[in-house]
Task: structure prediction
Amino acid sequence: RQPLYNSMEKARRCLVNAMKFGKLLVIRLGTSSPDFRDKYNDENLEKVSNDLVGSNLSFFPKEVFYSGGKELHSELWVKRLFREEDMTPHKNFAICRDTFRVCVTSQLPIDKIDECLFGASEENFGGLPDKSLFKIISIKQDDS
Result:
């Protein structure tokens, strides 16, 4: 297994590329329920890596999920997420394009979404941040 830091750095690079080029970042969960609420986020990364405490660097903040990523359009988040190597070919130039958005997809049955992605219990840990941040859309296959 990869250390948490390596996984978070990979996620950060995908996030930054989507921001830089104004693309849709799709977080495809499949039938899994990764723990974005308590594990895969900046707050937890600081707990496991003393080097990051107080550094003001960000990797994958919970704000990714706020309003489809709109929170990350601010200069504050661009400065926290972008690294020097992310600013090529234009040195010292970091930007989040207006067309950047975030979408989370899941293949879980609609009747399992609340329990598996938003309900925390001993049997079901993790999931996504507050359900009020999401608009759930169910797409069904037409069998005709």
In short: The two ends are 44 Å apart (CA to CA). The chain is about 25% helix and 5% strand. Strands lie at 24-28, 101-105. The chain has a mean pLDDT of 85.
